[in-house]
Amino acid sequence: MTTTVASQHDAESILAELFAPDTRPDPYPVLRALRTESPLIVKGGDLVIIANYADCQQVLRDPSVRNDPKLSRLGKDHPERPESLLFLDPPAHTRIRRLVSKAFTPRVIRASQPQIHSIVDDLVAGIASKSEFDVISDFALPLPVRIMCALLGIPLEEFDDFEPAARRLGRVLDFNLVVHNDDLDDAEGARNELMNYLKNLITRRRGDLGEDLLSRLIQVEEEGEVLSEGELLATCVLLMVAGHETTANLIANGVHALLRHPEQRARLATDPELGISATDEALRYDAPIQFVMRIATREMQVSGTTVTPGTAMLVLLAAANRDPAHYPDADRFDVTRGAADHLAFSAGAHFCLAAALGRAEGAAALSAFAGRVIDPVLVPDSVHYRPNVNLRGIQTMSVTHGGVRLR
Fold it and tell me: Is the Heme keyword given for this protein (predicted)?
């Protein structure tokens, strides 16, 4: 494998800085440094950091690249993964994704639109009664939670029964770069809690099938193939963990960007049709999923660097999304940019199955915040980030306002 400009020591230091708690509020200077040197070889050649847009696209779309950490030379440090779309490779991934796609159809997404806007109306009305509100608990989180519960047919009052476990399980998406044995043990316990809840929910639903997504997943069939019980459970766990937290983080990160760029907030307020464009820009500018891991299964060239089979590749989506070689003035937040080709939803075989739903929720929420919350002001020192590195999200963020415009 060829060497890069940065020494092993420098590369390891930069990588360590990315995962340091002090970097959480603003990882982008570190990501810029990693992108400048990308591809970067670390851990004695067992890990390569991919950080510019073109290289990330190449790796994500290469059909020979795999997702299973056990295929890497670092694999011994990785726990066993469930039968989730998140960790599978073809042909198993292809089969399960095809079946899930038959249930998670564009019609399901379209049918959710009126409910999305109704929930946003309710949340804005709730904000009206408060002179100061928390963006996450009062706005960003309730929307995807209520949509996810409606999709899966989960009684909203049961959300508190599994939400803490879903958050604990999301911690392992930091992979083993910062995850320790205690985290893995806790995540396994959280996964078991979710599995037990879902087993009970699925049993109840089998006796009373409806039009919700869970009923569709139970019944989905193609050429005699169905989802096994384990596949069904793992798919539902993925929807519960990623389906609400990543969208909540998208909305919160987007609101934060709008608050720091009032001219962009005003632009969106005067043109609600920019909702999808603003959502894509929020995803590009401050991605709720910062990176993914991929494994080389053949010798490949990435920007002149030879990557050998078994090498793990840390694909920094958030760094690629700020690559000035692809996005002019990439560190500027611009709701009119039209950055639909961002990598926040990944690319290739593992492109996010729920991207259209996330975009719809983000567009409704960001347009409403920009157009209906009057004179919002970020309360100083109120922004606190969650400890997660990969699932980048704000834990609390307080805003005052001068009233709201109700429909």
Answer: yes
